[in-house]
Write a structure and sequence with these properties.
There is one protein chain. The chain is of the alpha/beta class and about 280 residues long. About 40% of the residues lie in helices and about 15% in strands. The protein has eleven helices and ten strands. Strands 1-10-9-8-7-6-5-2-3-4 form a ten-stranded mixed β-sheet, with helices on both faces. β5, α4 and β6 form a beta-alpha-beta unit. The radius of gyration is 17 Å and the shape is globular.
């Protein structure tokens, strides 16, 4: 395999767009996060808060009824729309047309949720980030992959990737299979790991930020929020993915001297987003 392109600060600054001093929330993008089920509303909280803290003007979260109070209290800046079902998502009805949608964190794999995902994919034309249980559902219903828009961003961790592309015997086989998957479905693959790679058709990019502190519950939910936010702000999908993984990793590099590896949690990523963006100035 040819050497990957490195995602460095120099590379990021070629397309990074500082916020216009005359902007307002109405033109900073409106993102929708579809996330959560009973016992996993935290995933919706983390993704939604990360989305807001990455520069998005407005965020609406779609979640089961059991998540309503949790979201309204924990992130008052986020608007909440609920499913008719109390414990898991069964019918995705969004009363707006957003600039980007992130779907999957903590949604579970209930049959009703699988049907809801299918119906959503059948009609959705909005730029999309697919993560977590959305990927696990698609791995079990691979014909549905034909429904997702071109340049959709998928963010699998190693086990989710294996479910999508099948087992591999070597790193080179893993990359070959992921490249083939990306080309077949015309999607962008964010292969989370150490380091994180982005596969966009036959182009391979290697992230240069991040460390072992990111190996913690909720880290991926935060990444989904960040990338969805950047998509909603008008970044092309390939740039949203690159900037998203770079900033996500950078927060861990910034926080590590204070937290150490053991005490770093997903909320620390969100807390350090400001410093990470300021380092690009």
């Amino acid at each position: 395999m040819k050497d990957p392109f490195l995602i460095t600060k120099e590379e990021i600054l070629k397309f990074y767009k500082p916020v216009n001093s005359h902007t307002h929330k109405g033109i900073q993008g409106h993102a929708v996060i579809i996330a959560g089920s009973y016992g996993k509303i935290g995933a919706a909280v983390l993704a939604s808060k990360a989305c807001l803290k990455s520069g998005c003007g407005l965020v609406t979260t779609f979640t089961p009824k059991c998540g309503y109070q949790i979201l309204q209290v924990s992130i008052p800046e986020v608007m909440v729309v609920t499913d008719e079902n109390s414990n898991f998502i069964t019918n995705i009805q969004i009363p707006l047309i957003p600039q980007a949608i992130g779907i999957g964190p903590g949604i579970g794999k209930e049959l009703g949720t699988q049907k809801a995902l299918f119906e959503f994919l059948r009609v959705n034309k909005t730029p999309l980030v697919l993560d977590a249980d959305a990927l696990n559902i698609l791995a079990e219903n691979q014909s549905w992959l034909e429904l997702i828009p071109e340049n959709t961003i998928l963010t699998p961790h190693p086990k989710e990737l294996e479910r999508l592309i099948g087992k591999w015997n070597s790193d080179s086989e893993k990359f070959q299979k992921t490249i083939a998957f990306s080309e077949k479905y015309k999607v962008i693959m964010v292969m989370k790991g150490v380091p994180t790679f982005i596969i966009n058709k036959n182009e391979v990019y290697q992230n240069t930020t991040g460390n072992a502190a990111l190996a913690t519950a909720g880290s991926g939910d935060v990444l989904t929020g960040i990338i969805t936010s950047l998509l909603a702000q008008g970044y092309e999908p390939k740039y949203a993915a690159k900037l998203g993984v770079y900033i996500h990793g950078l927060t861990a590099d910034i926080a590590l001297p204070e937290t150490g590896y053991e005490s770093f949690i997903a909320s620390n990523i969100i807390e350090n987003l400001g410093k990470a963006f300021l380092s690009l100035a």
